[in-house]
Prior knowledge:
This protein is α/β, with parallel strands linked by helices. The protein has helices at residues 4-23, 31-34, 43-67, 83-89, 103-115, 117-123, 152-161, 183-196, 213-224, 238-246, 258-264, 267-274, 282-290; strands spanning 72-76, 96-101, 130-132, 137-139, 142-146, 170-175, 200-207, 252-257, 292-299.
Amino acid sequence: MDDDPIIATNDDASECKRSAVQLGYWQDNYIHLLVKQTQRKAPEINRGYYARVKGVEILVHKFLKRAGPKAQIVNLGCGFDTLFWRLKDDGVQVNKFVEIDFPTVTAKKCYLIKRNKQLLEKVYEKDGEVKLSATDLHAGTYHLLGADLRHVNELEVKLQQAEINFMYPTLFLSECVLVYMESDGVNCLLSWLSSNFQSAFFICYEMCNINDTFGDVMLGNLKARGCALSGVNACRNLEAQQSRFISNNWAGSKAWDMVKVYYALPSAERQRIEKIEFLDEQELLVQLFQHYCICISWIGSEFSDIDFNGS
């Protein structure tokens, strides 16, 4: 299987984030250190990424508030995500922050962290040391690891190297990752996580409602680029997204399409970003939002009531 087209989706997503950040949709002081100057993206793309980033961010902060100082975060298929640095800027402390992706991706990220003082000084801790290899970085609470998520044994070894505590509350993040894995591989991963972690919360951002004309176009575009959508069955609808967690022994699951997520964001923030760019075709944005979702799941009961309402 050729993984290069899948790996290339990280570049696309990172460029889209930088485009939106440059226009002021949200603040990210680090994305420009990881991604070169990019062409301005269409307004619906910028707004879509705003909803994605902010929707995930809200749930991350709710998990951290509930989990306390023992909280661990594992970003599966992290790409050039900057969440670790943004949390640092917010003064948020976590027990462990682990990022995992293909070794070719983590090798690039290791190189970029090493050559940028702004990135490196955030991972470096007083009286600590930074251990670097070609693909891995270990520094205090932060760990960047090259691994193939389709091989659970490899993942287990890497998590042990990062000294993850399987008893501590752990957040797993996955954004447009599971769709590229065979269903058996996803089931193996989710089942292994539910069997080994005592307390966990999973945030998954992915496509949904793809069984229509708009979905066909989305899938066609990805297939034309060589992306094998091996896990696309779980993207049929919100129920399919939830059921794969339940069938792999997670305690419960909820899912929302991005229309609901967008309108759950603070209205003042929505009004602010809607003034940044004029959106000619509202219908296109709604269609995009209808075909992406955030699905959450949990192990243990302490995170079962987290959603986009309340605290």
